[in-house]
Specification:
Layout (H helix, E strand, L loop, with lengths): L14 H33 L2 H15 L2 H9 L14 H30 L7 H29 L2 H17 L2 H10 L4 H28 L7 H10 L4 E12 L2 E10 L5 H18 L3 E10 L6 H8 L9 E3 L2
Parallel strand pairs: 2-3, 3-4
Antiparallel strand pairs: 1-2
Length: 327
Amino acid sequence: MSIFHLHSRPVHLSLPEEEAGASRVFVGSFLILGLTAVFEMGISSVSGSVSLLSDAFHNVADALTGVPLWVAFFFSRKKPTARYSYGYGKFEDLAGVMIVMLVLLSSAFSITRSFGKLLHPQIFLHPGWVALASFTGFLGNEAVALLRIRAGRRTGSVSLVADGQHARVDGLVSLSVLAGVTGSLTGHPLWDPLVGIFLGVVTFLIGVRMGRDVGTHLSDGIESGVLETIRRAALDEPGIREVFRVRARWSGHWMICDLRVVLDQPVSFDESGQRARAVEERIRKAIPFMEDVLVVAMPCAEGDGSSLLSKNARSEDQEPGKYETHQ
């Protein structure tokens, strides 16, 4: 799951309602997975099952992935200032850096403990309680899956639905601890640390993916295909001849972009603004998590407009404003 799973803005909820609903999902998921992990850790401490301990760390990692978005929704209520003119979206990524470090440390601890048991195998105690904790991990992830999927369908967030489906898969991963239980009952002590190493590697891969996403956002990188989606959306608007200098970046869990469009014929100043607004709406429909769109509309000159395009494509300085038109 993404820490940086994308949350589309719903079309039927106001922003305060959306933030309240998202906060309930984040808090609910965090509490469910957190309590599940605490229960698993408790059983692991008395039984000695490293696979159960690894699954507990895995659930902690999943619980923590919602924290950056929760932080972002908190700071999104703060208005931009002279110091933070783009707002406080990057605080989400800073929180993500700390969480990535915690996830990687937990995976390293899990793998280390499991490797130690692999070198010195022993049958763990209380296999019945370990099986119960494994099933509890499954139920906890399934509850989170239902919470996220229902919220995603209600708000129109494809990413929340995907996040819920991921939690459902994690529930099946929790059941893999039963392999260690079977090994304990049948005299195969190596099964438990092998499952523990597997879950530790899964947690490590989660941390790596989170680190990649956080690094991309912090360095103002953008995912493959986003710019082309913006370009195609702008070109779909009637009257647009050319689209160029398309740029986009993340600000927290929202995206901002700017682009220049050349109209297919000379129009009035007011009509240029209307075309720019129409392009913005198309981009927002194509990318629902787009927050700010800056459209520079340039009517073409008499003829083919190529000289105007060339002239303006070399111009880098723009006046500030929501829309800009060149006559």
